Amino acid sequence: MGRAKKVVLAYSGGVDTSVCIPYLKQEWGVEEVITLAADLGQGDELEPIREKALSSGASVSLVADAKVSFIKDYAFPAIQANALYENRYPLSTALARPLIAKLLVDAAAEYGADAVAHGCTGKGNDQVRFDVAIAALNPDLKVLAPAREWGMSREETIAYGEKFGIPSPVKKSSPYSIDRNLLGRSIEAGPLEDPWTEPLEEIYAMTKAIADTPDEPDYVEIGFDKGIPVSLDGRVLNPIDLVTELNERVGNHGVGRIDMVENRLVGIKSREIYETPALLVLIQAHRDLESLTLTADVTHYKRGIEETYSQMIYNGLWYSPLKSALDAFVQKTQEVVSGTVRVKLFKGNSTIVGRKSELSLYTPDLATYGAEDQFDHKAAEGFIYVWGLPTRVWSQMHRK
User: Fold this and answer.
1) 23 labelled ligand-binding
2) What are the backbone angles phi and psi of residue 45, rounded to the nearest 5°?
3) Which residues lie across from 38 on neighbouring strands?
4) What would be the CATH architecture of the domain defined by 6-163?
C-alpha cells in the first residue's frame, strides 16, 4: 500500500493514538496529520485532548460534537430493530464506529486528505468496523492502521512516544480497557480475561450494586412515536436528555450490567463486561410495545431480521446494501409502533408492567372470558379440523 501525504487520524488522547502522530510522520513519511476526536458523550474533557494532539505533532486538531447524531441516526434505528448481538449485547460501542468513520471521511474531504487512520490493533472488531465503513463511504481513501503493524509492546509504545515529547501516563495505568459513550461502557482485559473471575465492583460506574439500590421501586413510562423513544413519564425530551435521564434512573436500580463471552468477528472469543442501562430498557420496552401493535406474522418474521441486523452492526456492515434493505423493512414496521410502556425498576430488575397504544391490536372483547366475550366459539371446531388435516392424513398413512 502506498503511503499518504495528508492523514486524518481518529484520536482519543490515549497512548496509542498519540504515538500514531509521530509514528505516521517519522516511519511512514506522512507530511501532515490532522486529528479528529469525536464527542459521543464519553465525559472526557475534550479541550486538553485537543491540545495534546497539537503538542504531539498534529497540524490541526478537530473535536466533533456528534452526540445528537449518535443517538438519532445510530442508536434509535438499532432500538427500532431490537438489535441485540447474540441476544444479549445492545451494541453500545459498535454503534459508535460507523459514525466515527463517517466523521473521518467527511474531514478528509474537507481538508483534502488522501488517507484516514485509526489506532486499532489486529485482534479486535473495531479495525474491521472502521476499515469496512470507510471503504463503503469512500473507497478511494487509504486506511492506515499503525498500531496493527508497528509490533511494539505497551512499554515500547510509551518509550517511543517519550522520544517525541509525548508524556507517559502520569498514574499507574488501570489494568482494564474501558470504552465509554452516551450509550454505555465496555470493560475488558486485566483480571477479566479469566472468564471464571467475578468482576470487582470497582469496574462499574453507571450501575449500582444491588445492595446499594433503593428499597422502593421506580416506575418509568416510556413513550414511543413510530418506534422512537420520545418521552419519559409524559415529558417530551430531546434524544440526549432522554438517554441521559434514563441511564441515571435505570442504573440507580442496578439494571444494565452484562457479563458475557462473545464471539468476535476475527474468530476469537472475548470476555466482555458492558453497562448499558438505558439502551437495554429501551429495547425491552420497544419490543413489548411491538407485541401490542404488530400482527403475529410481522412480529415473528421481524425476529429473524433483528438477528441479522445486530450481526451486521457488530460485524461492521452498517453501510452495506443488505443493511440498507433491512432498514426499509424495519422502518415500514415502525409506522404503527406508537404508545407507552410502563417499566418497574427494582433491585436489579426491569419489568414491563403495562403497555398501551391507540393502535393496539389487543381486543378485550375477544380476549375476555367474561360475559362480554364476543369470540365465536363454534367457529373453532371447523378451524381445528382444517388446521389439523395434514397431521391427520399423515397419521392415518403411517399408522397402517
Assistant:
1) no
2) -75, 115
3) 64
4) 3-Layer(aba) Sandwich (3.40)
CA 223 to chain centre: 21
129 known ligand binder: yes
pLDDT (average), residues 229-235 = 98
**Rg of the Cα atoms in the chain:** 25
Rounded (5°) CA angle 309-311-316? 100
Q: How many CB atoms lie within 10 A of CB 207?
A: 23
CA distance 337 to 80: 9
| Residue 191 scores a pLDDT above 50 | yes
Q: How far apart are the first and last CA of the chain?
A: 71
Q: Are 119 and 17 in contact (CB under 8 A)?
A: yes
In whole angstroms, what is the distance from residue 70 CA to residue 373 CA?
48
DSSP 66: -
Q: pLDDT-derived band of residue 171, with 50, 70 and 90 as boundaries?
A: low
Closest CA relative to residue 146, chosen from 315, 32, 25: 25
What's the rounded Cα separation, in Å, for the pair 81 and 395? 41
Write down the pLDDT at residue 1.
47
Alpha-carbon gap, residue 103 to 130, rounded angstroms:
11
399 known ligand binder: no
Q: Does the pLDDT of residue 2 top 60, yes or no?
A: no
Q: Which residues are catalytic?
A: 16, 97, 126, 177
Residue 254 marked ligand-binding: no
DSSP-H helix ranges across 265-378: 277-293, 296-314, 321-333, 364-367
Residues ≥6 apart with Cβ < 8 Å to 303: none
Query: What kind of fold does domain 177-356 have according to CATH?
Result: Argininosuccinate synthetase, chain A, domain 2 (3.90.1260)
15 annotated to a ligand binding site = yes
Measure CA 201 to chain center: 23
Nearest to 19 by CA among 219, 187, 169, 166: 166
Q: What are the extents of the domains in the chain?
A: 6-163, 177-356, 368-398
pTM metric for this prediction: 0.92
| pLDDT computed for residue 220 by the predictor | 98
Cell numbers standing for residue 395: 397419521
Beta-carbon contacts of 341 under 8 Å, excluding residues fewer than 6 positions away, are: 221, 222, 224, 285, 286, 288, 289, 352, 354, 355
